Amino acid sequence: MHPQPPRRTTHAYGTPKNLLVYDRWGRYGRPVVLLHGLFYDRTTWWPVAAELGDTCSVIAVDLPGHGHSAARDSNDVAGLARDLAVLVNGLNLHRAPVLVGQGEGALLAEAFADSYATRAVLTFDEPAAEPPDCPERHRATADLAGVPAAYRQFAQARWDGSLLRSYKCWFSNRRQSRTGKRPCFPHLRAPARFAATLKDLI
Q1: Per the database record, which ranges form the AB hydrolase-1 domain (predicted)?
Q2: Residues 6 or more apart in contact with residue 137 via CB below 8 angstroms
Q3: Mean pLDDT over all residues of the chain?
């Protein structure tokens, strides 16, 4: 019996100054791009991606300054959407992607859909109009009560004040104000059910 190749592989795109690191599952099918919120990283998507199987090509990206992606002085949302479009195009899957955004990643998913061909956009845990100004306030907003203990490791925020400054423009340029809700991480509360919802969009 031959050993199976790893389901998750890690890749990097760009130069050292604008490096984006991402994990990929599957080599064929429609691309599904998973975007995390501020202070999290691509690992928050691992349980969902594992449930999607080989029906699509799943991409979980570390936003700049998160995980292993290079930090940038400023993270213009339109410029980052453009970088994301080049990354997706480089996969040579020739299909419009499904964009999924959690927290601030929802803003990037919407910006991508405004400028590039997109199959569908799914957003949740959308942020309030103003970013948190301290780690205590940020942690207080996370509702982990419904997240099983085994998945809470994927919902650990890593506060960094410099990140807050570099992403501040995401909030000041918003077209409309949202009240924001407590992040409840539905993708970690029931990864299999969340993956089933994504499959319906593919």
Answers
A1: 32-179
A2: none
A3: 88
